[in-house]
Amino acid sequence: MYSLWRTLDRPLLRDIALVCLAVGVIGLSYGAIAVASGFPVWFPVVLGLLVVAASSEFLFIGIIAAGGSPVAAVLAGLLVNARHLPFGLAVPDVLGRGAWRFLGTHLMNDETVVFALAQKDTARGRAAYWACGLGIMVCWPAGAAIGGLAGTVIHDTGAFGLDAMFPAVLLALILPALRGDRDKRRAALAGSALALAAVPFLPAGLPVLLALAGLSLTTARKEAVR
Amino acid sequence: MNSPMHSPGTLIVAMLVLAAGTYGFRLAGPLLRSRLTFPPRAERLMETSAIVLLASLVATTALTEGHGAAGIARPFGVAVAGVLAWRKAPFLAVVLAAAVATAVLRLVGVE
Description:
The complex is a heterodimer of chains A (226) and B (111). With 226 residues, chain A is mostly helical. In chain A, 72% of the residues lie in helices and 0% in strands. Chain A is globular, with a radius of gyration of 18 Å. The termini of chain A are far apart. With 111 residues, chain B is mainly α. Chain B has a domain of 36 residues. Chain B has four helices and two strands; from the N terminus they run ααββαα. Chain B has a two-stranded antiparallel sheet with strand order 1-2. In chain B, strand 1 and strand 2 form a beta hairpin. The chains are: A mainly alpha (226), B mainly alpha (111). Chains A and B meet through helix 2, helix 3, helix 4, helix 5 and helix 6 of A and helix 1, helix 2, helix 3 and helix 4 of B.
């Protein structure tokens, strides 16, 4: 683990810390919403520790709070989280070795994957992945606990523009990959257009998976299929 | 647990199923990669697929809310971030600019 921290330089650590902090603040509203919906404080905290995928947890809590069935809440959450399968295909080298791999696998989420992909080499990618993953493992449930206890202190994270931070984080980290690669750019644009067109008609999670059809525009696929 | 209509046991089981299923999705990718050998081009395709997923997450979380449009403030904030990132501004500036631009628009009543 020591080499992991040595690989991380100050600017990268600062960027990761900012993202973890933002995740923690969103955790505040997640915890507050869950408790306001009638859940005990520990529920969003344990859910956060065991699932570590914010959008599926918001959805799970929201569906139950609206009177939906637990089965519907689980299925909706799983649908949103299905993208972790292709994520795992893309970043198998950063998950760690031996028993660490079980924890490394659990740390896989949008933020850790995008930080790993944005690094130049695997060692740096692995270090960024772990630092971000462990930070989120702490900040997300801690935010949920504080938000659940403090109640509606920060109910409206929208007022601070926090909802714009998540897409901005992902955008900033994938832009370098898109800039240098026409194939990726085309696939990403086509996939995004497809996802946006599907949003009004499909349940949450599916539009993003549908975006994978954009891969058909890459030359890599044509050659791989051949 | 005073959540509407469900016993604590039911909700705990639901939580565990969601957690186990999510872990299964996370585990499936690395397992497949370690069991099978893929041609280099297929491996490149897998990296591209992660970028495509992340790009479509940017698009949907920036521009939509539920099944409809997200209004003006958030797309504007993310667009500001996009311009800054394209011009190679530091990550910190990019992300904070998104939040500030969105918050300022909301402050003046543009949702």
